[in-house]
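Risk register update: the risk of archive-format incompatibility is retired. Evidence:
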Amino acid sequence: MHNAKLPAHVGLIMDGNGRWAKKRLMPRSFGHNAGMNRMIALAEHAQKLGIKYLTVYTLSTENLSRPREELDGLYSLFRKYFTENVKRLYANKAAVRVIGDLSALPEDIEKLLRDGESNSPESASFTLIFAINYGSRTEILRAVNAAAESGVKLDEDGFRRLLYTDGIPDPDFIIRTGGEVRLSNFLTFQAAYAELYFSDVLFPDFSDDEFDGAIEEYSRRERRFGKIR
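Archived output:
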């Protein structure tokens, strides 16, 4: 990995937690718990590699329509583990950022997430970005409405400043685990020129070695951004 060309920003669609649990005859909450542990460990690994930003698709706007029991299980995981895991990140000079509409979440969960952002170290070398109640279409519509209300015609840079990701560079590389081959409403504006990588591995089994293999694949690609070679 020392000679690999690293992406500065990786997006991660963590798919397969529920199916991983089902294969083990366990409830979906068991898979979400395993997925959260893998996510934190993977973030620490990404930071050690030299990646600057990792955005994890934690909860989409569409996921909020899932059964209440499953959502309550996810919220319980945040209540139990979020602060402890975030402190681990802080100790390694990592910051936390949250993108998405947090107003639809339970009040205490929103406070946990906001505190995670505000207590982040200022001189962070790595940022873990949680996309929670996030959907790219909702994000774009929100920005369009804000632009319309301002009455000012915007260029691309001005429009970007209205997105949840203001101040975050576009993802260079997006990884999706779990065997599905689509973006599922994740950073579609920002990912216009991102390299895509799809793995059949269910997320709790997506090891550091699997991640390294994806990064090595990225390093072999040539990014032309629409230009002739």
